[in-house]
Amino acid sequence: MPSKMIFINLPVADLDRSKRFYEAVGWKVNQDFTDxxxxxxxxxxxxCVMLLTYDFFTTFGTRPLGDTRGTVNGVYALALxxxxxxxxxxxxxxxxxxTEELSxxxxxxxxxxxxxxxxxxxxxxxxxxxxxxxxxx
Length: 137
Description:
alpha+beta; 2,3-Dihydroxybiphenyl 1,2-Dioxygenase, domain 1; 2 domains; five-stranded mixed β-sheet; 4 helices
């Protein structure tokens, strides 16, 4: 196992539906860490998303769940290797039932610094922001 990994824990209304969504965007379910309460979605060797049923998610703390469909509770930015990879991921998310958030003002600001991003919401309203940054040579 790598020395550092990140696990993003997300509450979901329908675990099976959410697993299908994330598989459709090209990520894999790790069956070793998946059961009726949770599913481990492998983004890459160092990044996993833990999809947790609402009931199970509430066992991790005492505060109530936020409404991810009506408010932004977090933005999950994911650096990718090219604008094409950004577009491919977002298009796969849209095909799987996700929605795209558009911000023309931000796009213009990003272009000034050599960044390209798009934003999609998964089936539960969790906001993903795949991006590519063109670093100066």
